[in-house]
Structures are given as C-alpha cells and as structure tokens.
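Notebook, p. 212. Picked up where the previous page left off. The plan for this session was modest: take the two constructs that came back from the sequencing core last week, fold each one, and keep the raw output in the notebook itself so nobody has to go hunting through shared drives later. Recording the first one now, exactly as returned: residue sequence, then the structure token string.
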Amino acid sequence: MEPCRSLALLAGSLGLIAILVALSTDFWFMAMGPTSSSHSGLWPKGNHDLVVLIAGYIHVTQTFSILAALLGLVSVGLLVLSCIPSLSAPGRGPLFSSITAFAAALSVMVAMVVYTSERWSQPGHPQIQTFFSWSFYLGWVSVPLFLSAGGLSLGAHCSGPRPGYDTL
C-alpha cells in the first residue's frame, strides 16, 4: 500500500505543479513572422476593452484549468492526510483522493481539448507560422499525471486493510 500511495502522491504533486505552471505562464501559443514573434497565454494583457472581448474558448479553458488545479490540490491534500492515521478516516483517504484525481484529469482534458480544437481551427496567415508552445504541452502532461495519481490512489485503497478487520 505504501509504494502506491507514495507514487500517487508524487504523480499528483507533479500534475498539480504542471497545471499551475501552465496556468500562470503566457506561452500557450506562439506566432513567428518574417520580422518578429509573439506569444500568448490564457490571461491576455492590455486595455480593458481587449479583456472584455476574450473569446469564449479562453474562458472555458481558464475555468476548467482552475477547477483541475483545485481538484488536484484536494487530491494531494487527501493523500498527505491519509499518511497521518490520526487525521484521516481509516482507508477512505486514498479512495477520495482517487476520485478527485480522476475529476482533475477530466477537467484538464476538457480544458485542453477545447483550447486545442479552437486554436487548431483558426485560419492561418501565409507569412506567419503559428504553433503551440511549452505551457500548452505542460497542460497536456498534467492529464496522464492526474490519471496516474488516481489509479495509484485506487490501488492504495484496494490493497489497504479494511476497517473493522484485524490484519495478521
């Protein structure tokens, strides 16, 4: 049980770090032209009129990414608490951590699919090369990390002692 819980804690922590870094950086999308380059993220900078005109897919991506970060934080917190027997319900910490980790993975996946599909379908310009950048890929990396954390937490729950039974 301990190796599964430790690995789940590691995967969940890495997933949480990945989504937090992806959320806080502005390198989701790059554009390179003949004389200059530009990058953008989920939090546009500029005057108030520009901020009001943010596309709907950006709002969806922001919302589901923040939800995923909060769920990932809860998952990691529950795993930490499950390591301290006096603070957790016997055997229930890894189960609830697994549920929240899977919910975090689903939230990130929704956010990333919406962002990817909307950016992919935007028309390009012949002299400007556009591509996804490293913050975008960190968002995608958090999906398998949260899925791994959920699976390993579930493994820790299933292999742990059942409440009410004496272990030999």
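Okay, moving on. Second construct, recorded in the same format:
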Amino acid sequence: MTVEDLDEIFEIETASFRSPWKKKDFFFDLTENLFSHYLVLEKEGRLIGYCGVWIVLESAQITNIAILPEERGHNYGEFLFDKVLELSKREGATELTLEVRESNLVAQNLYEKLGLKIVGRREKYYKNDGEDALVMWVKL
C-alpha cells in the first residue's frame, strides 16, 4: 500500500466497517509507524482489498482486513490473509493476534479455518456501539 492508494483504501474501509479508520490513521501508519506493513489486492487495475499488520519483535497484530463488498465470496480475504501470514513469518513473527467483533461470525469462521483460536475478550472494545471484541491468536 502507498499513500497514493488512500482514497481507494478509504472507500473499502467505509464500505466494510461500522467504525472505520480515518484516512489520517492509514497515513500515519504508512509514513511514520515503522512497525506497520500493508498489502493490497488488485483486480483489473482496481484495489479490491487490503490487510494491515503491525510486527513488533516476534508478535504480529492484524490491524484491519477488508474486501470490497461486491468482491466478497471469492476467497480473496483468505488469499490476502495468507500473504500477511507469510510476510509476518519472514519478518520474524512467531505469533499472530487480532480482534474481531463478537457479532462477525463470517470473519471468525475464516480465522478459525486459518488456525486462529479465541483466547480472550475485550469488553466494549468498539467505541461506536460498545460491542465486545474477541481476541484470536495463532502460533506461526
């Protein structure tokens, strides 16, 4: 991902989440956060998805993953997630974690398919509606 991708990324972000990140959050990660890495997925020259990960020492934390709603159901999310797992391992991570909305069963099922397990809960994690997040983890 580059700064030039931010308009398309923001389109995907706002179409995907009830509490989307702001453009300035992505901009900060791309320009100042030395721990952040982002991969994008293109189809016919158009960005259709992205995934971000922060890698600190041996720990990788997925920050966000999203696919345009009209492009879902084609395993693009799984493909992108696999690429981020590969990147995390190459960068020396030995574990990966993420938070997912308690109500997002589709995402939970994907993460479980990829080997992640629920290891905890963050109460009222999502500020816009107070929904809990489930913490999922996997050893790489």
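Notes on construct two before I forget. The radius of gyration is 14 Å.
Flagging for discussion at group meeting.
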